[in-house]
Write a structure and sequence with these properties.
Blueprint lengths: L3 E8 L15 H17 L3 H6 L2 E2 L2 E8 L8 E10 L4 E9 L5 E9 L1 E3 L5 E2 L4 H12 L3 E2 L1
Parallel strand pairs: 1-9
Antiparallel strand pairs: 1-4, 2-7, 3-6, 4-5, 5-6, 7-8
Length: about 140
């Protein structure tokens, strides 16, 4: 399978944590978003490009499996992998403690395509997005 993934690293901020200095569960979804944005930038079809092409991609489904907590001061390595791009955008995520290498959280997010001007659901992704992904596949995939 092609490696259509991207990783970002960042320090866990104090304001992401609960009083026990453990990352609050809802913030893991924000960490998914950091990796997703990096991957979409790499593909060349980020949220601004989506808007410019006349489409929006609301989230349709989110799954998250918490395995081990990240804590204040940890370095999180967030990895996003594109697994579906023809009928929807579907990405899988892995969050690691970069120091220990431990997998802390796994997840998945699906986004459906909607025409921005009328809110009509599209059952395929825009040609411009699919072509950009296929370009990277033809180049042997990519990893950032």
């Amino acid at each position: 399978m092609m490696n259509l993934s991207c990783e970002v690293k960042f320090k866990v901020d104090f304001n992401d944590c609960d009083p026990m200095r453990i990352v609050w569960h809802g913030n893991y979804i924000n960490y998914f978003e950091r990796a997703r944005c990096a991957l979409l930038d790499k593909i060349g079809y980020n949220y601004l490009d989506m808007e410019d092409s006349g489409f929006i991609f609301p989230v349709a489904e989110v799954k998250s499996r918490y395995l081990k907590s990240l804590r204040f001061g940890d370095i999180c390595r967030a990895k996003a992998t594109l697994v579906e791009w023809e009928n929807m955008i579907k990405m899988e995520f892995e969050l690691y403690n970069d120091k220990t290498g431990e997998l802390c959280t796994k997840g998945m997010v699906s986004q459906i395509c909607v025409k921005a001007d009328n809110g009509e659901t599209q059952f395929v992704c825009p040609k411009c997005f699919v072509e950009r992904v296929e370009h990277f596949i033809a180049q042997g995939g990519f990893e950032c």
